[in-house]
Amino acid sequence: MSAETGNPVVLVRREPPVAVVTLSRPQVLNALSPELMETLAQEIEALDADDAIRAIVLTGSGRAFAAGADIAEMADKDAAAMLERDQFRCWQRLRATRKPLIAAVSGYALGGGCELAMLCDMIIAAEGARFGQPEVRIGVMPGAGGTQLLTRALGKWQAMELVLTGRTLTAREMYERGLVTRVVPDDLQLSEALRLAREIASHAPIAVRLAKEAVQKAFMGTLEEGLPLERKNFYLLFATEDRREGMQAFLEKRTPVWRGK
Q: Which of 8, 35, 127, 256 is the residue whose CA sits 20 to 30 A from 157?
């Protein structure tokens, strides 16, 4: 197992073909400070550009995945200061990640923490994890995608209840509503997320990347937008060496050797 590297607030462990990124502010339940988010964006971008890494797992340290934004850093800001701060720029960078991003969630995933989990492509949650958007309880609202992503995942009526009441739900309740990919016993969320990441990383990387792009378009766009993109990406894969290798290996009844080309 490779050693952890990175800024003290974000630790990175490379285990090619996968990597684990850990939010590391356990004393404040991994509150998403500007420093943490900027560092997280930098580390994820570096992994996205690393050909040795084919899937990324994002997790938290201590008792939380992330319990939300760092309220202490925002409490004295006015609207102009928040606009100038442009804290959501880092979130856009994270959304541009091309490789599969899997959240391994234990403890609290609240506010920005819930939004960060939803930014990922899959969520593996420990039985004891809790999700929610409690921003209305402090006089604000979700700002990093919570109202949009919850509505797409759960539907208007369930999303409206969560956003307007600030209630939290268990991992099992979120699984039943379609937000969580899988619920596992406590302390097994990271190992299960790594198992899933390695399974995905065993496939042709360009095909995985283009398939992710097509699913994202289906989630965020319309059918009229998604179908042409799906067809385009399907045809593009016929220009790759991996497509030829995959089909030849199937015909020869052997395991393919992917080159990412």
A: 127
